[in-house]
Each structure stands twice: as structure tokens, then as C-alpha cells.
Amino acid sequence: MAPVAQRLSAAGCVLEPLLTAMTVDGQVEECVAALEEYAGGPVVLIGHSWGAWLSLIVAARSPSSVRKVICVGSGAFEEEGTDDLMRVRLERLSPEEQAETKRLLAAISDPATDDDAVLARFGALMAKADTFHPLPPDEGGRDAVPVRVNGEVHRRVWAEAREMRRNGRLLEICGQVHCPVVAVHGDYDPHPAAGVAGPLSRVIDEFRFILLENCGHCPWLEREARDRFYEILIREVR
User: Fold this and answer.
1) What is the pTM (predicted TM-score) of this model?
2) N or C: which end of the chain has fewer CB within 10 A?
3) Other Cβ atoms within 10 Å of 177 Cβ, number
4) Strand duo 43-48 + 66-72: pairing
5) What are the tens digits of pLDDT across the range 106-130?
6) Which residues form the AB hydrolase-1 domain (predicted)?
7) What is the C-alpha separation between 67 and 180, in angstroms, rounded?
């Protein structure tokens, strides 16, 4: 989310912690420690995808550190409907890319796989499937700010987070969040919007849901949605 942090820095101070712990609790502790060291009071947490879940967990565990949470392109908070996620993604790829995705998925699921390049390639294919109208790199699109991929962090943390969703613990924790929460979601995002809006509206008192048109999983990379996305973020932060 470096492009988002850079854009928002024009409107105020921004902290973009790089989390590397191998457990959910470890990443929560890293985030809280960064807030305690660098933030001068309660902050607005903006989390994308898995980061949306993480931001809500941080808000529940350290309520004095967070005054609002903005969830961007969040994954669903319940198992129902998640089976369609990969089906939708595969339908948006060519037959060759579909076959490659299935091979990569098998490799990622294998604990013996120790190749960050495998996860990086899988991420590139999913980015293609998840984006409605992508900006080119020279206009702030994907790869404008390269990031190092760590497959081991992904495997361990995602396995734990997915189990938290399956057993209901994730939504239970979200119910302990008492600050305002805003979810921003693209209408082209294969992660089901209903799986975000429905569950969170049931357990969080101050919750709002904003659906962006012609927008995929990463709004700041979308030609038609980027400006509206930043308008929303700046308004909500202020």
C-alpha cells in the first residue's frame, strides 16, 4: 500500500508499518508496537485485504490506539460464499493462465515449497483477475513500487487467519470493535461484498459500507475508481 501511504501523506502524517511476524498475534503486536512508538495518539487504521482483518483485530485488542478503521477490499468474514472466489478469478483468465494458477496453488499449498517467486507469480495472476481497468506503472499502477514477497509469512499467517474465519473467532473479535468502521469495496472485486457488509453490520454498531463502481480488489490501481477512492479516504481520515 505504499502508493496509498504516499498519496495520503500530503494530507497528514502516515505510518506504514512493515509486518513480518509469522503469526496473527505476532503481527498484531508488531502493529501495536509501531503505533505506540510513532503515533501521537489514536489513529485511523487503513487495511487492505488481509490487512482489513488485521486492522479490526488491532482495534479490538488495543482500542485506545485506534479511533477509526477503514477496510479496503476486505476478504469475507464468514465461510459462506468464499468457494466462488477462485472460480470467479479463474473465469477471468485465459485457459493457459488457469492451468498455471492451478499448478501454482498446488505448489503454494505444499509445505516443501520454499520459493517466494512462486507466490509472486501467483499474486501477479490474481492481480490480473482482480482488476477492472488497471493503471499502467508510469501512472501509479502495479509494480510502480516493487515489494518483496515472503511466501513463508503468507503460508503461516493466512492458514491461521483462515481458521479464525472458519471457526467464527474472527467475527467474534470484530464484535469487540467499538470505534467507527468503514468498508470500501469494489463492485468488480471477486471477494464477495455481501460477505463483508452483512457480517460487519451485524456485529459493529458504527459501520458503513461504500461500494465503488468499476473497481476491483485494489482501488488505488484502478483508472476509473482511484480518484473517488482517495476522496473517500481523505474525507474519512479527516
Assistant:
1) 0.92
2) C
3) 24
4) parallel
5) 888 777 776 788 888 998 999 999 9
6) 26-223
7) 7
